[in-house]
Structures
1.
Amino acid sequence: MKLTLKIWRQKNAETKGKLVDYPIDGIEGDMSFLEMLDVLNEELIIKDEEPVAFDHDCREGICGSCSLQINGEAHGPDRLITTCQLHMRMFNDGDTIYIEPFRATAFPVIKDLIVDRSSFDRIQHTGGFISVNTSGNTIDANTIPINKYDADTAFEAAICIGCGACVASCKNSSAMLFVGAKVSQFALLPQGKIEATDRVLNMVKQMDEEGFGNCTNTGACEVECPKGISLENIARMNREYLSASLKR
Ligand code: SF4
Ligand code: FES
């Protein structure tokens, strides 16, 4: 395939960015989107030009670092996959592809396509953990009976990889799907009950302080989430928040 790439180039957070055109040829349908960018970067390096900076690590849909806005969609046109799992067969010969970083005030651009998502880490630090007695008397988790619905629902929330596509897809740059998943994965399990009140209050407070917007039930986050995290997690977080507020 022969393609025209329009890629966001930005030297650093202080400078203005712009879209730059890069024609590219010889792209196979079986290549991943990141492999296509690797080909481009090899060509740029040979021409002594600055390669395009983009984030990636596992390249198998686990780490959540490969976050790109492709033709206006977080992680591109396919569903339930990350950018590293996106194949070039989703595009046609002659296509023009717009490649931009995730856009949100709480995700400032570091360089080109890389954004700073440490705001997510700071939210996690305020409540994304449980207290476990590690004195030698730790209870084996398998000895605590948990009904199947709760176990499955907690697991479905726990597969959030913190990629930020929910924020990038939301017109309000809301992080409520992410925070809802992180609250839900513990709220449903007995291990999460100890800090339940502090967890939801502190995580929501930090989310607001980081500058994320509110949820207006549009549902774009659920559509673009590579892990299929359900909007039900936002509803559960709201219930947890209300109940925690009444306890204070
Ligand atoms: S909820 Fe989905 S889109 Fe949002 S950070 Fe988690 S995995 Fe990514
Ligand atoms: S590089 Fe890890 S999820 Fe894509």
2.
Amino acid sequence: MILLNQSKLSRCQMLAATIRLSDAIHTFCHVQVLSSQFCIQSVTESDFPMSHVLNIAIIGAGLAGISAARSLASAGHAVTLFDKSRGSGGRLSSKRTDFGNFDMGAQYFTARDHGFRQELKGWLDAGYVEEWTPRVYQYDQSGLRRSTDDQQRFVGYPRMSAWSRALLEGLELISSTRIEKLQPQADGQWLLVDDQNQEYGAFDRVIVATPAPQAAPLLEPASQLAHAARQVEMLPGWTLALSFSEPLDTQVEACFVREGPLDWISRNSSKPGREQADTWVLQSTPGWAQMNLETDKADVSQGLLSAFAEVLGMDLPPAQFSHLHRWLYARPGQQCEWGALAAPELGLYACGDWCLGGRVENAWLSGQQAAKTLMSKH
Ligand SMILES: Cc1cc2nc3c(=O)[nH]c(=O)nc-3n(C[C@H](O)[C@H](O)[C@H](O)COP(=O)(O)OP(=O)(O)OC[C@H]3O[C@@H](n4cnc5c(N)ncnc54)[C@H](O)[C@@H]3O)c2cc1C
């Protein structure tokens, strides 16, 4: 059993997590959370004096991958991020249009962990992030009413993806590159092979920071890690972005929906920096998305629009802009508390929201945990 540094954890005034090497197989590092609250600190060079610089590949430039990359790079390691998309940020994606910036993935984030709140201060000061204080409603069988929810919410400024892009500054990212295979070398290093058969590397360590179903095949060389990833189901979702030429006559700026196809509604234009037109983002429930995964897009849009009109209790004018997006892997279906996964003997690690719970903050913390575990094994 490896105990995290006690004095540091008590400084965080939170209960600790222990990292337990899974007894039977030494290749599987399992983070066991002993309390619902735990502290993962940002890792600095002084925490782990370096014996030599490692060449590290991170597959996935979502928040988890970026979080790990920043820790490792600030400790002096050579880090290269890979992402299959043209851009970065993964599910922190935003769509830029003539009608404004729409957040198509994460709508906002919360900050409960002490270490994460410390980071947040820096992001707020730098202007990448702002607080969002919408009028929050809820809708269920009893109808629409004001929510008592007083959660503090934060958003990337002036769009979600601007935050992840700012965090990537100074890091090396190879985009539009889908990594398909990790090839172990005789000397313990790794080659990465993409879907065009192009090779990258060699790397001393690899962190896989993709959603679980995409991580499982990459983690195959560490069968315990692949097995863990295969256990995690990721649920789908449909997102519809809308813009109206005249503001809709409603006080609603955010709404948790507990009835029908919708899960969440946000008045996108009520977020700071997105005030160009009256813009909205609707998100379906995972169950409705599952039933309509292959439904014609026009029918999906119509289904979500009808549900929206029902929640607001009004006839909607025609939208001047609409854009529909399908997420195959929107959120993990279960709440795991692994933190991150590791096969240190192989130099393979995995992180992502699926290792800690499907939220932005957890993706960040999972990346921190992967970096910390990697450096502690160095
Ligand atoms: C519609 C929606 C709404 C949400 N709303 C909220 C919210 O309001 N609040 C909140 O806290 N959370 C929300 N979430 C969840 C939040 O977005 C995620 O928890 C978080 O962004 C996950 O970050 P990640 O780095 O783990 O994964 P991702 O952001 O998915 O990043 C993984 C990256 O890996 C890349 N990738 C995958 N396979 C490969 C490969 N083979 N080779 C190279 N690259 C690859 C992908 O392109 C992606 O960029 C929402 C998610 C969705 C989809």
